[in-house]
Amino acid sequence: MALEVGSTAPDFAQKNQHGEVVRLSDFKGQKIALYFYPKDNTPGCTAQACNLNDNLPALQQAGYKVIGVSVDGEKSHQKFISKFGLQFDLLADEDHQIVEAYQVWVAKQMYGRSYMGTARTTFLINEQGIIERIISKVDTKNHAEQILSSL
User: Which residues belong to the active site?
Assistant: First the structure.
């Protein structure tokens, strides 16, 4: 069954950059901007993370907690966060638990080569754990604006 607006967001339990287990259910009563990105320290992913970080006060004022997810490990996330001063958690989904639950682990193509990877997608989840919006055409340099424009 495909995830869509109105679906209950799949719960998860995954480690963040500090090895602490983060569960979606821990944020019941809070709005979440759960964003999936392909890889730490790549140009598009860096632009997206920095845009969200630069606009974090506005996102928080709108009630959102930002959580990033990629299949990179904790050490990679630690370096990424440190290098760019990111102020939100990145989940290390090395076992693909979350990317598969949210159906963003997909077949991709680059230079004629097929491979599996993460589709850059953001799920806006309301206080009751319901998906309110799915942003699949992410503008990496203006992503916070995309999120806030839905208000």
Answer: 45
Q: What are the extents of the domains in the chain?
A: 13-137
C-alpha 21/C-alpha 42 separation (Å) is 25
Residue with token string 């839905």: 150
Q: Exposure pattern of 49-72 as b/e (b: 16+ CB <10 Å)?
A: bbbbbebbeebeeeebbbbbbbbb
pTM above 0.85, yes or no: yes
β 31-36/121-125 pair status: antiparallel
Q: For residue 66, what is the enclosing H or E element?
A: strand 64-70
* Domain 13-137 architecture: 3-Layer(aba) Sandwich (3.40)
pLDDT tens profile 20-68: 999 999 999 999 999 999 999 999 999 999 999 999 999 999 999 999 9
